[in-house]
Automatic annotation (TrEMBL):
Gene3D superfamilies: NADP-dependent oxidoreductase domain. This is Aldo/keto reductase. Residues 16-314 form the NADP-dependent oxidoreductase domain. Pfam families: Aldo_ket_red. SUPFAM superfamilies: NAD(P)-linked oxidoreductase.
């Protein structure tokens, strides 16, 4: 698999990683043995970067990754996130809290030092608070973490974070339904040497091409309970796109998929081809999904005609719903 430098961490990671939200919660049930098989399949397929968070299953995702690492997983960079287990108020983002949160993640993952810790979509004022980033620098100095980054909801938050000298990475939603970051965020990150972690790459599965108007999801799946943003930012579910509109867009995109690729691989390849992207982190609930996602790295770069067609679909159908918000 192609390797890229993960921003200011200096680490080299495979361009397709694994998002481990599915292994924790909010996507229906995933048994522990199956979760471990997903991790194994991804790493066997060339994945060297796994993204998780302390809130995924209240630590379950981290614990499963820790079990996998203890069983012999090597050469893997694990990024976790912190901050969403408390009410979202800026005053909660303190050095003492960061120590507590990272200690818990270190225990869950079974490591002395965390490879990368990201603030998990904190309140917007946090990005402009010097004391927050001084505290993160302290964690690095104390050896609790090797590097830190941020996970953001908006382009403005991303640009504010990129300007911080200690920020190693920015994680942002980027997919064929989210073209906004291409104009400013990715160029700014490239110039600053900040890594871009592309999350929600398949728009919560819409861009897999497997859904239709009759598709339903489990009650404990965020694609059921968060469609209007009842639990967290609605942009995390189907990238904020109305489900029916997303299906229509996928129908228009499907003829662009090259022979030998799946719709999901086409969508992942589109992200890989964007200058400035360090790693894309699709999730997987089965080993086959993990292997298929990793194989997107082996697909040829998309043609200019395909890239232009994606932009046309976005402009026609998706931009009216998301362009001004994210």
């Amino acid at each position: 698999m192609e390797m890229r430098v993960l921003g200011r961490t200096g680490r080299r990671v495979g361009v397709v990683g694994l998002g481990a939200w599915q292994l924790g919660a909010d996507w229906g049930e995933v048994e522990e043995d199956q979760a471990l098989r997903v991790l194994s399949a991804a790493v066997d397929a060339g994945v060297t970067f796994i993204d998780t968070a302390d809130v995924y299953g209240d630590g379950r995702s981290e614990q499963l990754i820790g079990r996998f690492l203890k069983a012999g997983g090597t050469g893997i960079t694990v990024a976790t996130k912190m901050g969403r287990r408390v009410p979202q108020r800026p005053e909660h983002y303190t050095l003492d809290a960061f120590r507590d949160w990272t200690d818990r993640s270190r225990t869950n993952l079974g490591v002395d030092r965390l490879d990368l810790v990201q603030l998990h979509c904190p309140p917007t004022p946090v990005y402009s608070t010097d004391a927050v980033f001084d505290a993160l620098d302290t964690l690095v100095e104390e050896g609790r973490i090797a590097a830190y980054g941020v996970s953001v909801e908006t382009r403005a938050e991303a640009l504010t974070a990129i300007a911080r000298p200690g920020v190693a990475t920015v994680q942002i939603i980027l997919n064929m339904f989210r073209l906004g970051p291409l104009q400013e965020v990715l160029p700014a990150a490239r110039e600053a040497g900040v890594g871009i972690i592309a999350r929600v790459p398949l728009a919560s599965g819409l861009l897999s091409g497997r859904y239709d108007g009759n598709t339903t999801f489990d009650a404990n799946d965020h694609r059921t309970f968060n469609r209007q943003g009842q639990a967290f930012d609605v942009g995390e579910t189907f990238s904020g796109v109305d489900f029916a509109t997303g299906l229509e867009a996928v129908q228009r995109l499907a003829p662009l998929v090259p022979t030998g690729s799946t719709m999901a691989q086409f969508a992942l390849r589109w992200i890989i081809d964007q200058p400035g992207v360090s790693v894309v982190i699709p999730g997987a609930r089965t080993p086959d999904q993990a292997r298929a996602n990793a194989a997107a790295a082996d697909q040829p770069a998309l043609t200019s005609e395909a890239l232009e067609a994606v932009t046309e679909v976005y402009d026609d159908l998706i931009a009216p719903q998301v362009a001004d918000r994210w």
